[in-house]
Amino acid sequence: MESCCRACLPCCSCLWDRIWPGLRYPGPRDHVIANPAAHAAEIRTVSGDIRVPAPKKRPAQLYAALFDFEARSDDELTVKEGDKLSVIEKRGDYVLAKKLTGSLESGLVPANYVALLQDEFAKHKWYYGNINRGKAEKLLLASQNKDGAFLVRISESHSDEYTISARSEGKVFHFRVQRSSIGAYLISDKISFATLGELIAYYQKNSRSLGVLLEEPCAQQRELFDMEPWERPREEFRLQRKLGEGHFGEVWEAFWTTEKKKVAIKTLKQEDTKQDEFVKEVQALKSLHHPKLIQLLAMCSRGEPVYIVTELMTKGSLKSYLASPEGLALTSAHLIYMGSQVAEGMAYLEDRSIVHRDLAARNILVGDDLVCKVADFGLARIIRDSVYTASRNTKIPVRWTAPEAALHQRFSVKSDVWSFGVLLYEMMSRGKMPYEGKSNKEVMDLLTSGFRLPSPSRCPSNIYRIMIDCWAIEPSKRPSFHALHSQLDSIYAKIYFKTVEV
Question: Where is each SH3 domain found (predicted)?
Fold first, then answer.
């Protein structure tokens, strides 16, 4: 009963300025290609021997009207405060917007009358994030639940869509929640909704439309998750190969004997951790689920050293990958694609006000097909302050740290944005050390005098402009990670579909 069709999206690959996250990608059907064979060859020119997928067809983001606005001409759109809108493009002081409910009309609205909304599903008891189909079925079929129990999870095949898993007649059925081209949520083409919450509420009241009851959220979210074995005996893990070393410890490839799978283990010295906060903080990090974040699996906090166990990424850190033969063969198109994934993962943390503090190529992990995931998010919060902010033998990553954070310990999402700009520099320079040859003090002196890293030799000008935006001295003037993700997605789509060699 899981729907498999996908909506076709309209063509729109224009790059908006940094405060307006835009429509994402043109669909391949929208581009007429006179010579398909020649086009395929051009795509290979862009991609090289390392294949990257076509840009995801991502729906428009959701906006809401802040105030009532009465149309004064046929070009304008009447909206009421709270109306859900899809913003199509910015036009001077106005935006071209389309209503997501009711008449579905479109027209111009003053730009300062609308605001971007972020989907915040975590507050709902039915939202389980990034669990797989098997885990959903195990939860729903547990004795604490009965027919009508349901949950919502991120789709395993499409990370920007969702799946409703519902128990009925002792079985579990799954329904794909798709996104339309204007950002609406739908299971059936007959009816769509501005938010996921509205869709769930509708099908709770109209069970015949779905074919199963949605009565109560899965009963044992807290109970089962709290009983899961999080603290594991270190004897279950066999360290096999050292993958790297960072500011806060070593990283090893290991084999988890009881689970019969390979994992990655970050080792920490107990003396460097805040023992009173360690378990609480790592438990909180375990609750974060996103396809572009490394998934935490377990920990060993008893004895030396502390183990933090995560999923294993086959290609290792982005820093080491950039220096490998495969990494050196990457074009700017590949790197932009990878940078976009990092921005997507950071946007998820941004929505939850989680500050990374150490965003750099060494803390991005690479898998097959150029998949990138953010690692070590929140780790700085469980490291003793004296280790992190020591003034003499400092471990603070000065070359990646915003001035207000390095000088005054004012870490924020915006200081992470600064670090993302330095990460882009690392990528576009193919792994060059930022401020090479300079001491930490010299770096701080340069930054406070207004100096910024120069553009790497093969860096596209629009990517360097993004770096400069990230390095605005005033944190509030730096773009959001949502905006950075949108910009990089749009640039990559233009490269891919126009087959521009960069």
Answer: 58-119
